[in-house]
Amino acid sequence: MYPAKFEYVRASSSAEAIRMIQDSEDAKFIAGGHSLLPLMKFRMATPSLLVDIGRLSELSYVREDGNEIAIGALTRHCDVERSELLRRSVPILAHVAGQVGDPQVRHRGTIGGSTAHGDGASDLPAALLALDATFVAEGPSGRRELPAREFFRGFLETALGEDELLTEIRVPKAITTWSFQKFNRRAQDWAIVGVAAVRSDTTKVALVNMGSSPLRATGTEAALGEGASAPEAALRAAEGIDPPSDLNASADFRRHLASVLVRRALEEMNI
Amino acid sequence: MPGSILGTSVRRVEDPALLRGDGTFIDNMHFEDLGHLVFVRSPLAHAKILSINTDLAAKAPGVLGVFCADDLNIPDHHAFFALNEAVKRPPLARGTVRFVGDAVVAIVASSKAAALDAAELVEIDYEELPPVISMEDALDPRLEPHTPSTDSNIAAGYRDPQGDSVLEDAEVVVRARIENQRIAVVPMEGNAILVVPPRGNDHYRATVYVSTQMPHAVAGLLGGIFSVEPSSIHVIAPHVGGAFGGKAGVTAEHSVVYAAALKLDRPVKWVETRSENLIAMPHGRGQIQYVELGLRRDGTFTGLRCRMIGDAGAYGGFGGGLVLGSTRSMSQGVYRIPRISYDGVAVFTNTTPMGAFRGAGRPEAAAFLERIIDIAADELDIDPIEIRRKNLLKDVSFPFTTVVGTVYDIGDYAKALDRLIELSSYEDLRKEQQERRQRNDRYQLGIGVSVYVEVTAGGGATEYSSVEVTPEGGAIIKVGTSGHGQGHATSFSMIVSELLGIPIEKIQFVQSDTAAVPRGGGTGGSRSLQIGGSAVRGATEAVLEKAKLLASNLLEAAEEDIVVAESGDGLSVAGVPSSTVTWAQLASEERKRGNLLEATFDFSQASATFPFGAHLSSVLVDLETGKVTPRSHIAVDDCGRVLNPMIVQGQQHGGIAQGVAQALWEQYVYDEFGNPLTSTLAEYAMPSAAELPSFNATNVETPTPLNALGAKGIGESGTIGSMPAVHNAVVDALSYLGVRHIEMPCTPQRVWEAIGKAERGESTIPWSDPPKAFEILPLRGQATESDAASVDV
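^ inputs. structure came back:
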């Protein structure tokens, strides 16, 4: 399939990108294009203007910043996967980036693109949700920081404004153990259900593809807080969650998978 | 002469061009005034077309032509064989659309993008009609027939008179309703065609570049559709990016492109997109099989009753007829089954038309038979290998006629099974299985076996070849098969090289062009080496004979003393190496006499060949998630004498991958309204190398007496043997829990549900009374025989 006609401009700085996005009513930023282009090819998205931020090397970095690691929004999955700093300080993120799609996807897709797309079936948003990451957005009215738990709002919907650019993702370093369980039929597939769990002072568990956006397994987290064992806490993985049914799994099977995978994650973390 | 080249793994001569990107694929071909064609397709499975407005599209930039059914007036036609003579497909829908993807409007523009933009501007008003999606619904006599030209949704069918009587003397009867799910072909390159109207003093009506398995058949079918001499259409198949049965015949799209090019008098090209390929290229398989096997308590088979439904899809796709053809003819498999009753019915549905896919009817046969045998083994608590051994055809003389009338050329089924057991350490696997069960391991081991026989070169067992020795001392092979990945250039050159001594790098290979090769059956049904290779061999022998006569004159020796020179370059007098005449000299001498040093040969094989084999697969099943991970797969396939082991192994590997894929991943799914739910490769779960284990593919060799090469087909065997082995392995892993059957593909959810059912003490074997429609089918032999029952692609 071919996309409908659109205008295309390439930004040379994030400030310029934010100016350019205001030129057209239904303009979209494009980075790796691995979420947006398929929608455009099916003509399910028909932006009039694409503002290409893919070459903003100023937004591709992983660096230490106090108790946090700051990751530029345009850092590609393969660079997140290979970052020595992340492998040392927040290994779950390097690991999860290595589970996204296939090598071609990981060499094009960016962590910011995946986050801004806000797909509940994507791996990285759930991992960032478990990590209580902070998202830095810049727009015409300045810069603001958004906590992960307020960021993902619904099906492909985030707290970002139309003219705001996600520039940085900040994750805390103080993680003691972690686990990522991705359940799919083929290596390159989205997870049917995935679990990202991290432990710092408390254990935080996020779920992939259990809803229209990445979700925290609040039932499990509460149970653990109340001193429940891992198997008991895992049984509450889908509490309050209404998972989707599709070709790969019914809602019931997803609930079952969520509890199995949460239990495996907690076991792996010796919880 | 050095040792024989036959039986050695000669590297494929056709690969360097492909690896360097020098392929000649249709989408890379360009002509100056080329028009690009795209289709506007139906988004509904069944609807009346109320109006079509193409005004805006016609005025869009770059548009050269916009065509509806009446603008091209192409006669309705079958794509390949007729399943039901009365029902043909209008290449562009006339008044009614009958599946999601049915072509309604064709747009030709100066670029593909312009054509696609114009397609967005076409407005079609539909009135939805109730669709028939499931095969069993189609047998409901109250539903409206697929087209006004039939009185039901039955396209063709028959029943056997014996019916239930074949189970009369059984002590035990096991029964199951088994689905052999619909799958998509998904070749790397989808359909593609470029039609060039006559230019200058071109004496053809058109030159057709088409991605096909059978260029001569394309000329024949187009000639038939447009009422012109097939020889007036020049058909060329350039590089073809895979076909697997999906590129046999002339589809609706092909005839539209042909008509549009002639109407516009300019070259027109259509290249399927991936999304289009998944809804437009004919699908394969798609059977519901009501199977009952009668046995004595000791496991001896006493009778088999089959009531089988084949999905033909819209307009009665010929693949729906396979249930009446090769699925029945292979229903006895490798076993002694004293009595078989087989009823078959092909039905119209509002889904993509069915065609052939790797195995075409035979995998469906092996699948049900091997599955019901394992169900019986579980029921009687007999080891699956033991029950097979007990019932294998042995001590029979070949040719052997089965109870359904199929004549097997030759077979040694126990030999394949013995070799398999030897290679697999079967007892060790069973021991590991026991250990895992005892320690209640999260991952249970399943071991699955299949023993199969299939049929190759079943239809069209004749083929043309010519071989010419050139004045440069090389050779030119022309042959009517049409290789598209099978390695014919290599294999066929090996045959010539073996007989003439000419090295394969000096042999030119010509195929797939109706102007260069006068006739040909193309490539399908695993026919090429045995039929085409035998034709090449015949032509080579004939040219050698001609050359020997010539050499005997030149060397002044008796013809019977002339042999191929030790050096391989020419002919010499036996025992007198100094008395030699080179191939270049021989060909030049013949040219001086006004002739080519060439011979042609039309090979004809008396009947089909029946490759066989045995596969063993092991899988690990995650009891908590239901996920199946294939662990190992061993194939022992007998394709007769092996000419090039590397090429044979390549075919086995691809075939096995496809069989594993159907057992575990692939299924084409529609919702109740006929919307395809698997129309991209994100949903349609084709596996990659990451999901597959390493294969151990080997052979035993039982040469067929039907051709001098001793060769049988190998293109489809891997698929036929592997699918039931993997399927059985999944169920075997869980049999100790009481699981007896899981439908393919064995997805995590299905496995999880089966475990749950078994834990609750419910049966996991689906069965219900087969639809009443079977009772009113005409008796076999009294029904009109459907051409599609003899399809072999």
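Residues 528-555 of chain B form the longest helix (28 residues). The mean pLDDT of chain B is 96.
thumbs up if we can close this ticket
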